[in-house]
Amino acid sequence: MTAETQTPAVKKPEPAGDDSFMNVFLRNLWSANNVLLTALSVVLAVVIGAVLIVVSDAEVLAKFGYFTARPSDALSSSWELISTAYSELLMGAFGDPAVFQAWFAGTATWQQAFTPLSETLTYAAPLVFTGLSVALAFRGGLFNIGAQGQAVLGCIVAGVAGFSFGLPIVLNLAVALVAGVIGGALWGFIPGLLKARTGAHEVITTIMLNYTSALFLSWLVIQKGVQAEGRSDAISKTVAESAQLPSPGGVLRVHLGIILAVLVTAGVAWLLKRSAFGFEIRAVGANPHAARTAGISVARTYVLLMAVAGGLAGLGGATQVLGTAHALTPAVAGNIGFDGLLVALLGRNRPWSTFFAALLFGALRAGGNRIQSFAGISLELVTVLQALIVIFIAAPALVKAIFRLRAARSTGLGASLAKG
Amino acid sequence: MRPVRGKRIVAILAAGGLTLAAAACGEAPAETPAASGSTAAEAAYKACMVTDLGGIDDKSFNASAWAGLQAAQKEVSNVDPKYVASSSEADYEPGLRSYVSQSCNFILAVGGLMGEVTTKVAKESSSSQFAIVDSNSGNSNIYPMQFATHQAAFLAGYLAAGYSKSGKVGTYGGLKIAPVTIFMDGFADGVAHYNTVKGKKVEVLGWNKASQNGTFAESFIDQNKGKSVTETLVSQGADVIMPVAGGTGLGTAQVAKDSAGKVSVIWVDQDGCTSAAQYCDVFLSTVVKNIEEAVKEAVVKGAKGETLAAAPGYVGDLSNEGVSLAEFHSFDSKVDAGLKTELETLKADVISGKVKVESASAPK
Questions:
Q1: Chain B residue numbers touching A233 (CB-CB < 8 A)
Q2: Is A156 inside a domain boundary?
Q3: What kind of fold does domain B42-147 have according to CATH?
């Protein structure tokens, strides 16, 4: 993804003439390319997060009260707090060395050792789909705020299909997944159609549809035939075992959804790069007027694009309900649609970058659970970290100014975000 | 332009630095020997709690349970309490599992909604000790803490019927779940008992015990929802209202406050004059569910090495003060002495079994 930003610079003859290879290399490394900007955004977010951790801990903060008298107290306790927090974050996301040692020594099972990774992938899977949904719509020049609503509808339709049909194994799962896609696609199709036919702005219509789907879900789960038998609270029947995404079970919650996510990411990448529809999307996204002049039906592209984006988000909802939740509750979709927006921004609307951004968010979430549980630091810290990373990504000029980066010689950066 | 701006930044930094330096001039405390801390940590009894969706500051059952853990720490110093807050139902399981892997000695699930997942995790981690509030699964390693809340709510219903001037009293719940409807059952029964004893016709709005149907805010946090539900009840004529909805109930307290004495509120869970003191002057009384004491006792027992038997577990009722009707506080002078003595006799009658209070949601 960086190759394109680096190679032209090397070819261009430098006026000074006597630049060594290392100089050119370093200069390009420290120019504002996407990888470096993303990495620095993460670094900045971590630094600000560290300050927040210290500020929110009364005990450590008290030690700053006598900073001039004995600075070592404040510094060492802050360092200890920050390093525990971040090491717990990493261990919660990727694995705890102590548990691996215990596994090799035979006192722990391999499942326990891989639990953190499994959690990361579990949280990442639905975000990949909702992220791709937002990213794809962005490429066509549409701001799909409705990923949340589409994911909720995906949850609803997939969940209901999962416990009502009672089809044989494999078929049941396939039908439930397809149902989720159709549900989401419908919820994307409506704003797409409204945009194409009446010019209603998709931001407004999708936000309204978010409310509609959330309220529909909370109404639906307490209806007879949907609500779990013997329960008076808002929870639906459990999805049939044959319609659940296969998972190793026990402490490992990871499920087939993550593999599906890889395949779908590859599919979306192919769609954008190689297919005729992908070309139309990009053409309409770059300039709808020019696209129309060139003979592309902008209205048709909008409708189709929103339906596909909705289907992707619906699939995200379906993996949530068929993979982890197994029953519908009013909060079953959590925040996956809105997190998908952040993931797409972080991934700069490119399919594979979005995939890795979702993995990063999954890792932060899994690690956040561990920070909260082991170090007693609020889970909100993770939300703040996620938000900070995205703020810095969305404001590349800020990062460039802070680190005094040279401007990259490619215009690719920021161009995709400017429309947002 | 540029140098001026540079100087300005330097000046701001210098000023900020001076303020910080001034704030940092405190005396350093004497070094404390570290030995005492480490011995306590060795034998620490880790009491770990997973909250329900309301979060730790819900001024209701999560807050009570957490207060219980902290109270236990005051009594037995090696108790080391910590908690995780759940932001959605999907967080229950990782929260519990994470505490299993940290080998917590006491893992507390707060709220009946966590019943199923707690049972599942407890079955797979048979060596860990679990506890749960408002649920009983029958697993041998889950210590259930349940409350015969309908007994205290019965007294509250009687009080409300006796105090009401309009002849109509109201109640509503946060969600239609057993730990909520048990309050409403008791309340409705209390009113009905008042009607039979006194030959009156006080009406209950918001809950029908026979059909088990009523008004619910569908939230334990949304105060505006509480306000609108309450306004509906008030417009139908209710002048004493019991919200069983955690933080949502604060909306009811606000409506009562705005009514300038016409409407009064019966609070639930923790005494309203402590947990929501700003509204103390509208709280007629509180149906207290003493989760704090129950949790504290369980943890103290566990920390002392006593076994926590899953059967019968803990059932709080009027006789062991697990549930009770709180003081009248600012209403003390307004509730007439006759009603007060009747409540005392009624309480004794419920304890002795002379008056039977029943609820479909009662702990079995």
A1: 113, 175-177
A2: yes
A3: Rossmann fold (3.40.50)
